[in-house]
Amino acid sequence: MAITVAQLALQLDGRIVGDADGLINSVATLDHALPGQLTFLANTKYQHQLAETTAGAVLVRESEAAGCPVTAIIVNDPYLSYAKAVASLYPEHREPGGIHPQATVDESASIDPSAWIGANVVVEAGATIGQGVQISPGCVIGRNVDIGVDTRLHANVSLYAEVKIGERCLLHSGVVIGSDGFGFANENGHWLKIQQIGRVIVGNDVEIGANCAIDSGAIGDTIIEDGVKLDNLIQIAHNVRIGAHTAIAGHSAVAGSSVIGKHCAIGGAVGIVGHLDICDNVTITAMSLVSKSISEPGVYSSGLPVEGNREWNKRVARLGQLGKLNNRVSQLEKLKR
């Protein structure tokens, strides 16, 4: 798809310095962009690449426009504007409404005529599929599942019974929603399974990355609020609640009944233990272990960053000596008194 610089600037509420009639048909990085391609400068680390770019147009801030040798579109936030531009230049492919002949659909399911049901999809009794929904091959839609308007499921997504998915959601391949929570009671050394009778409720505009697992509630529901973004390979346990517009990076895990507030940012491979409360506007850096509730907004970290093995061994050895050091200091303080 091609669009003029003028049309693009209008969509982005930007101001043009240069050729407004130039055509843009694709995007590229600042150092590789060619005529006809759009690029952007969001990080001053790449400022030196701006002077040599041959792009058709560059999204820049006002302060960087003078150094741009090609057409500039001046915007407040180049990265955000780039995200909007990509959506215009690369519109999502959508299948026309219909049911593939190799799909299996229970006669009691309700499917909007504009929805697409791909090959080898199974839709069980009582399911409701909304307007414009796209369900790719191999998905399983369980009993009484409800999928909202314009939501898309990529191949091989499994939604267990009673799951509710909101509008305009995007679920990537391998996602499993509504599987049993990890609930067992110990009876004389043997584990007795606890029936998980809650649901999973997913709000609007939620994106769930490939191979995420979100467990059903043990009694109440597991809830993912509007605008939440989950990266690939994330585990969300039973009865967790994730607040609106929180983003969680890959390989993180949230144990049962923890509550994460709104507008939080959680880095990769973070572990959050069960029954905690994390307030709104918290950032947790990668590889952190959250073992207690967080009641104040801010940035939180734990763990040691990588370093040479010899230095790391020395540091860990010193940590092991802290108890002895503390005892010696205490003894010296007593003598001083």
Automatic annotation (TrEMBL):
GO terms for cellular component: membrane. Signal peptide: none annotated. Keywords: Acyltransferase, Lipid A biosynthesis, Lipid biosynthesis, Lipid metabolism, Repeat, Transferase. PANTHER family: UDP-3-O-ACYLGLUCOSAMINE N-ACYLTRANSFERASE (PTHR43378), UDP-3-O-ACYLGLUCOSAMINE N-ACYLTRANSFERASE 1, MITOCHONDRIAL-RELATED (PTHR43378:SF2). One of its GO terms (biological process) is lipid A biosynthetic process. Residues 23-86 form the UDP-3-O-[3-hydroxymyristoyl] glucosamine N-acyltransferase non-repeat region domain. Its EC number is 2.3.1.191. The keyword Repeat applies. It holds the Pfam family Hexapep. Gene3D superfamilies: Hexapeptide repeat proteins, MurE/MurF, N-terminal domain. It is an enzyme of class 2 (transferase). GO terms for molecular function: N-acyltransferase activity; UDP-3-O-[(3R)-3-hydroxyacyl]-glucosamine N-acyltransferase activity. This is UDP-3-O-[3-hydroxymyristoyl] glucosamine N-acyltransferase.
